[in-house]
UniProtKB/TrEMBL annotation:
This is citrate synthase (unknown stereospecificity). One of its GO terms (biological process) is carbohydrate metabolic process. GO terms for molecular function: citrate synthase activity. It comes from the Bacteria. Keywords: Acyltransferase, Transferase. The keyword Acyltransferase applies. It is an enzyme of class 2 (transferase). Pathway: Carbohydrate metabolism; tricarboxylic acid cycle; isocitrate from oxaloacetate: step 1/2. Belongs to the citrate synthase family. InterPro entries: Citrate_synth-like_lrg_a-sub, Citrate_synth-like_sm_a-sub, Citrate_synthase, Citrate_synthase_AS, Citrate_synthase_sf. PROSITE patterns: CITRATE_SYNTHASE.
C-alpha cells in the first residue's frame, strides 16, 4: 500500500472504530434542540454533520484541523520559500491530520501527476457542448462524464465488502483531484483561447501546473494560485458544495457523481458563483458611475441602488460567519504585499469601508462583513485572468481538496445514507399554533 494511503488507513481506521462505538453505545445522547426558526432558515446551527477536515467559527473563521490560515501559511511546506504553501500539504493535513514534511507534500504532487491523465472522451464531452454553455456547466458535465473511470463503482458492482469501500473511494478521489486542473484549464483555453491547449508539465506542483496549463507561467501567478487553492479548499461540512457531495455520496453514488453534484451547488449565486458575480457587479458599478475612481459617496449610492432593486451585494454576508472572513483578510494581505495601485483591488478595499455600515443599518442582515468572494476576483483580474465567468471553476478545483477528503472519511467511517425527515407545512403550523391552517 502506498505511504499516504497507509498513513490515512492507520489514522482513520481508529476514528472509524470511534464512530461505530458512538453509534452503538451513545445513540441516545441529546445534542440540542431544533427550533422552528432553524428549520425555516436553512437548518443553521443544528449539529447534524460529522466533518473532520475543517471547522468554522463564526467569529474567527475557518480552521483546518485546528490551524488558521496564517498558521498554515507558516507551517505548510513551500516550493519557493518566498511564496505560499502548496495545496498538496493542506490535502495531506485534512486527510491525515498532521502537517506533512516537505517530502510528504512533494510525494503527493508526484502521485497526482501520475494520476492526472484525463480520458479523451471527457474532452470530447466538453467539445460537444456549445460555447454558450457556462464554464461551470462544462466543468460539472466533464466530471460526471469521467464516472466511466470509477473504481468504486466497479468494486461495488463486483460485490466488494463494505469495509473496503473507502479504499476504492480513495483511489477515485485521488484520480479526480489529480485530473481537475487539466479539465479546468481545458475549459479555459477552449472558451477563451480558441482551443489552443497547453499540455501539462508533470514536474510541476498541482496549482502551478493549473496556472501553466491556463497559459500563466509567472511566479506571481503561481503564488496567487497556491494561496487561492488553499483558502477555498474547505469550509466545514454544511456549506452547499460540501453538503451536496456528502449527501450524494451517502447513497453510495461514486465520487464523480458526488463531486459533479457539488459543483452544481457551487455554481449558485448565493454560494461559489458570488466570486464571479462580485467582479461583474463591480464593473457594472464603474460603468454606471462612469468613472474608474468613484468617491465613497458614489459607491454608497450604488450599493443602495443594488439593494433597492432587491439584489444582494455579492461578496458580503455569510450563513455562519459574523466577522470579516479570514480568507478575505488573507487575500487583502496578499494584495497589500504584492500589488500597488490597481483599479479593482482599490475598489475591493473601498467596498470594505463602505458596504458594512450600509448592510449593518438594514437590521435583518446577520453579517454585514465581506466573505472570501469579495476579494478573489480583483486578484485574478489583476494578474490577467480577466474572464470572470471562469472564476467559479477555479473555486471548484480547490473545493475538491476538502470535500473529497471528507468523502473518503465518510466511507471509512461507514456513514449511512442520509435521510432526514420532512413534513408538510400544515404540520409545522400545527406544531407552532395548534392548528393546521389551510395550507
Ligand atoms: C463561498 C461562499 O459561498 S460565501 C457566500 C457567497 N454569497 C454571497 O456573497 C452572496 C451575498 N450574500 C448573501 O446572499 C447571504 O449573505 C448568504 C447567502 C451568504 C447568507 O444568507 P443567510 O444565511 O440567509 O443570511 P442572513 O440570515 O443574514 O439573511 C437575512 C436577510 O438578509 C439578506 N442578506 C444577507 N446578505 C445580504 C447581502 N450581501 N446583500 C443584501 N441582502 C443580504 C438575505 O437575503 C435575507 O433577506 P430576506 O430575509 O429578505 O430573505
Ligand atoms: O460556509 C459557507 O456556507 C459558504 C462558504 O463560505 C464556503 O463554502 O466557502
Amino acid at each position: 500500500m502506498e505511504y499516504i494511503k497507509y498513513r490515512f488507513y492507520q489514522k482513520a481506521s481508529r476514528c472509524s472504530k470511534e464512530f461505530q462505538r458512538l453509534k452503538s453505545e451513545h445513540a441516545d445522547v441529546v445534542l440540542g434542540q431544533v427550533t422552528l426558526g432553524q428549520v425555516l432558515t436553512g437548518m443553521k446551527g443544528i449539529p447534524l454533520l460529522v466533518t473532520d477536515t475543517s471547522k468554522l467559527d463564526p467569529e474567527e473563521g475557518i480552521r483546518f484541523k485546528g490551524y488558521s490560515i496564517p498558521e498554515l501559511q507558516q507551517k505548510l511546506p513551500k516550493i519557493n520559500p518566498e511564496g505560499e504553501p502548496i495545496p498538496e500539504g493542506l490535502f495531506y493535513l485534512m486527510l491525515i491530520g498532521e502537517i506533512p514534511s516537505q517530502e510528504d507534500a512533494l510525494n503527493l504532487s508526484k502521485d497526482w501527476a501520475t494520476r492526472s491523465h484525463v480520458p479523451q472522451h471527457v474532452f470530447d464531452v466538453i467539445d460537444a457542448m456549445p460555447k454558450t454553455s457556462k464554464p461551470m456547466t462544462q466543468f460539472s458535465a466533464a466530471i460526471v462524464s469521467m464516472a466511466t473511470e470509477s473504481i468504486f463503482q466497479k468494486a461495488y458492482r463486483a460485490g466488494v465488502g463494505k469495509k473496503f469501500y473507502w479504499d476504492a473511494t480513495y483511489e477515485d478521489v485521488m484520480n479526480l483531484i489529480a485530473r481537475l486542473p487539466r479539465i479546468a484549464a481545458y475549459i479555459y483555453r477552449r472558451q477563451f483561447h480558441n482551443s489552443d491547449h497547453i499540455e501539462p508539465n508533470p514536474r510541476m506542483d498541482w496549482a502551478g501546473n493549473l496556472a501553466h496549463m491556463m497559459g500563466f507561467d509567472s511566479e506571481d501567478i503561481r503564488r496567487l494560485f497556491r494561496l487561492y487553492m488553499i483558502i477555498h479548499a474547505d469550509h466545514e461540512g454544511g456549506n452547499v458544495s460540501a453538503h451536496t457531495a456528502h449527501l450524494v455520496g451517502s447513497a453510495l453514488s461514486n465520487p464523480y457523481y458526488a463531486y459533479s453534484a457539488a459543483m452544481n451547488g457551487l455554481a449558485g449565486p448565493l454560494h461559489g458563483f458570488a466570486n464571479q458575480d462580485v467582479i461583474f457587479w463591480m464593473f457594472e458599478m464603474l460603468e454606471d458611475l462612469d468613472t474608474d475612481t468613484p468617491t465613497d459617496e458614489q459607491v454608497e449610492a450604488y450599493c443602495k441602488k443594488t439593494l433597492e432593486e432587491g439584489r444582494v451585494i455579492p461578496g458580503y454576508g455569510h450563513a455562519v460567519l459574523r466577522k470579516t472572513d479570514p480568507r478575505f483578510t488573507a487575500q487583502q494581505d496578499f494584495a497589500n504585499k504584492y500589488i500597488k495601485d490597481d483599479k479593482m483591488v482599490n475598489l475591493a478595499n473601498q467596498l470594505y469601508k463602505v458596504v458594512p455600515p450600509i448592510l449593518g443599518s438594514i437590521g435583518k442582515i446577520k453579517n454585514p462583513w465581506p466573505n472570501v468572494d469579495a476579494y478573489s476576483g480583483s486578484l485574478l483580474y489583476h494578474y490577467g485572468i480577466k474572464e470572470y465567468t471562469f472564476y467559479t471553476v477555479l473555486f471548484g478545483v480547490s473545493r475538491a481538496l476538502g470535500v473529497l477528503a471528507s468523502l473518503v472519511n465518510d466511507r471509512i467511517y461507514g456513514m449511512p445514507i442520509e435521510r432526514p425527515t420532512s413534513h408538510p407545512l400544515s404540520w409545522f403550523l400545527e406544531q407552532a399554533q395548534g392548528e393546521k391552517g389551510s395550507c
